[in-house]
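Reposting from the mailing list since nobody answered there.

I have sequence plus structure tokens for a pair of proteins and want to know whether others read the tokens the same way I do. The first protein:
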Amino acid sequence: MPIWYHFAVSPHLRRLNGSAPAKCLTEHHNLRLVGEAVDLAISITDPSHVDSSQCECYSCMEIKRGTDCPHPNRCIKKAQELLDTLPTKWDPRSPPFDSLARVPNGDDENQGTDRYFNRQAIVKGNIAEIFRIFTEGDPLEGRASLTHFPVRQDEQRIFFGKAKKLPVIGDGMIFGAGIFFKNDEARNLKIRYDGRQGSPDASGVILAIAHAVVKADKHSPLALVLASDTTVNVLTKKLSDLENCDFVGIEDAYLLKNTIGILREHKAPIRFVLQKEPVGKDDARKADILAREALLLVCPSPLVEASHTFLISGARLSTMSQALAYKLIKKGRNGNQPPARPRMEDTLRRVKTETLESNGKCISDPLIWRAIRNPDLSRQVRYFLWMLLHNAYKVGSHWNRDTMPPELKARARCTEDGQLETMEHILSECSSPGQKEIWHLAQTLWTKKTQNGTWRQLSTPSILVNAMAPDQGKKNEPDDGTPRFLKLLTTESAHLIWKLRCERVIRNENQKLSITEVENRWLKAINDRLKLDQQLTNTKLGKKAIPQNLVKETWKGTLHAEHALPEDWIGCTRVLVGMSFGIRRGEG
């Protein structure tokens, strides 16, 4: 590597290249490479050398005879100064990576139930093993300090406990971890980590390990006592494989990578101990108590940032596969998240709140998005729910903007009652014939099927919640079609209300529909959905066909003259939902 204008040297340090000693090095010493500078600078270690231009040590006299240099001492110091400008990882005088603190037995293999954390970052094999792609951040200006450090003989024993719970609201998960320092309880900590429902159970412990290592004496050997073999495997046996693939597919990978960096920064051996024997059981119990108390903390604990020089970025090129490269490309694209959509976020929040209040369950965003793509729903309904969840239909406040001309701003108000025409207003509040009549019909049919079952007043969030009814008819699940029927009844009715509103406002210039027309349109929509279910049982669809028993259970109790239908009525063409007009209008 050339010593002059080295690419890793800061530009403001390159002015040293124009000094008089630098010219002497190039003209008399013919110095070009870093290695040649090292050979020259090592002369300063000669015991007989003195810091003077009149030095007559063996090294200086040899330099004078071989190069005609008038001031060898000055050139030796200049060569050393040039080497000092190099970052640590480019300086050949730095100790090799093999000087990294190893496990006490001098072997990379772990023995018994105790497993040592391997701080080594040495790349073994041929030169192809050192290349990594899909890296992040700027190139390192230096190298991690990987030399031996004075190690204390007394080992610090730290116990970890864990706990978790669902939050009061939201789609996440609260993880608690307790850190109990044996013989040093003043350092005990409670750690709270707010993750997602897909986060590993050990997420809180992973963060707690980082806090504990930072809290402990950096020169003291550590024994980290955990109850989870999975956590220990991730930080020992599987560590190399995870770093080779850049932790792709790992939830909370950023948290795990930072903890590994913190462990590498520690300047003494670290071993993991599995808490399976009764020894230390009381200490482990105290750690569990701290973990449960951590769940009561108001705010989550801060993340511990590891030094950039101890973090390995990117995936190893020699282990790259096409599938892994595709995942890493997707990961890189997803890293640049689009700006937040306030309307969509508000709808998601309302759906989660509605689910918590009605079912007592917390749901995640991915579950909501998967639910509106359920194959039980028709393509038109799936698109309608997608737009509804994004609050993307151009109604209400979409028109009420300062940039809109007055004639377009008028569209923000309902022509029937003058209220702001939001989707909530259209689907459950508007006084124009349509929504009230359709929901009354849906309630009547629901009561007929469930024998006076409870019917709740529906809103936009509750419509979306009903669309998330669990799938039925799968293996090991009962073919109870009631939740599926509620899903179809609610979504088809809501979609029809929206279609009738668009026809009235856009096509028919606010001409109202008659109640009879609304009833007939709804009955046709429900019967069309019944026919679609019949067609979806066709065995020609293969694996995509739905079970006939599921269709029968879904529509059981709603069909016209159901007692007169054959047992296998799926193939019949004149099967209809049975409701008389008098019942639908509440006249009998």
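The second protein, same order (residues first, tokens after):
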Amino acid sequence: MHSPRLREATQACFQGCCPNPTFKTPDQAEQPIAKARSTSSVCRHNFATTTASSFFPNTHFTNHESIPSLQESFLHFIKAYPNYSDTAPIDQIRAREYSHLSISDHVCLDYIGVGLFSQSQMNKSEGQSGNLPLFGVTFKSVSLKSQLLHGGEGSLLESAIKKRIMEFLNISQDDYSMVFTANRSAAFKLVAQSYPFQSSRKLLTVYDHESEALDSMVNTSEKRGARVMAAEFKWPRLRIHSAKLRKMIVRDNKKKKNRGLFVFPLQSRTSGASYSYQWMTMAQENGWHVLLDACALGPKEMDSFALSLFQPDFLICSFYKIFGENPTGFGCLIVKKSTVPLLEASGGSGIVSITPANNLLRSSEDNSGTDTELEQIAKNHESSENETSDIIQCRCLDHVDSLGLRLVNSRGRYLINWLVSAVTKLRHPNRLDHFALVTIYGPKVKFDRGPALAFNIHDWKGERVEPALVQKLADRSKISIGVGFLHHVWFSEKYEGHNSIILEHNVKEKETVGTKNRKDKQGITVATVALTFLANFEDAYRLWAFIAQFLDADFVEKERWRYTALNQKTIEV
């Protein structure tokens, strides 16, 4: 069950991750793996115990005005996580390269991932020809298979960015090819349009949340004859229902070589749940092609977890331009070269070319309409492109590379677990049972949870405050959060009857004329937050202080009335 590849990755992953210096990883060359597992378990248990006992133990806050100040909270935070001070280089990078985050006083907690450029880099390059750290995208009418086989390296600018991203992900260009896509959804749809579902009919996905990108893939795959299956997640912690997923993965027909496409994220970008590489290994051993969704991973995890050990057939990730200011960017679809011949030609769209922003502006005047934008830009601005590709710098990627996995992951681990612990201490007053203000879905305090959180806020009567209203009020407080929808939730006999109370219906509108509505989905609408590597303690504290305002029994009603009076959509609470 546990393959050598999985054991090797587990050892590599654990090294240097334990926050407590008392628990050190044994020398892997001399110590048996059982000892490493034992040390890992002790470290994880110790981390959870420290988190639970260090932040105002045995204390609940029932009034938003009574919560400790930022300074007092930070002192408790540092006492619990003394190694947080080791992440000071991140604060220095944030102050030097991303000063707009402090100047704008806006907390960005609504998207996850990594950017390419820094704000400082953009400021310095403004007005310098050929050195703008911004870019445009132009669409290409070409099939995925054709682009992979005959597209070449693209323009010099594309080649430079592609090479830098492949280096950042630690992926060999000898084994994999990359295409740029308009966004994450386009990458998923391209795979669905090209995968040979006629011979490998199954599509198996592992997502605890609704995703526009995944919906696009499922819709396209179903139209092409795929049999779609999905993993389920056990209530209340939303762990994978292992027995059901294993049954779907393990092949029942040993003679059938290719079973289908297994789409797998290592972390949930909504709940923060982490999933074992074991599932990817099991799928490969049972004849599945594997698509690894890396969009929710931390910025250094793809490098340090060594793709060479697992070699997925497809990998999807995305990059935005500048964190906190310009979240637009592009998607990356990376395909194993040995898998390309299996793909089918398709007439889909979604592949893009990357063009310098200044060249893109000029092209709008120069383009005659007889050639594609990319061809016209190449003809008219080749010299400018040469200059740009020679000096292109992806400073954000450079920053992350200089920090390394241990520093980036430790910081996120400390902040997200403190936030989880803090919100669980908020309780409604005047209730004998001290009813919790916040419900968290998925993992709570946990060493290896991801830096994302799904939650709902409840008023003093126990009724949920609509996540859309929470999002609006957060935005007014200069805090950006998201709204998501958890689905495929499985209830055991222990929780029989809870599903009718907890789950709600989410009926999708039909996407195109002539298509039938999707089956309505049952799930849970939630507010979501995600911490990037640039997040700091003040960001987490400000979110906590905002949530604490809902302890005021009049707060929700007053704000609901305010939005109604402003002729905005009334949100029932």
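Reply #1 (J.P.):
I read it the same way you do. Confidence is low (pLDDT under 50) at residues 1-34, 360-381, 509-518.
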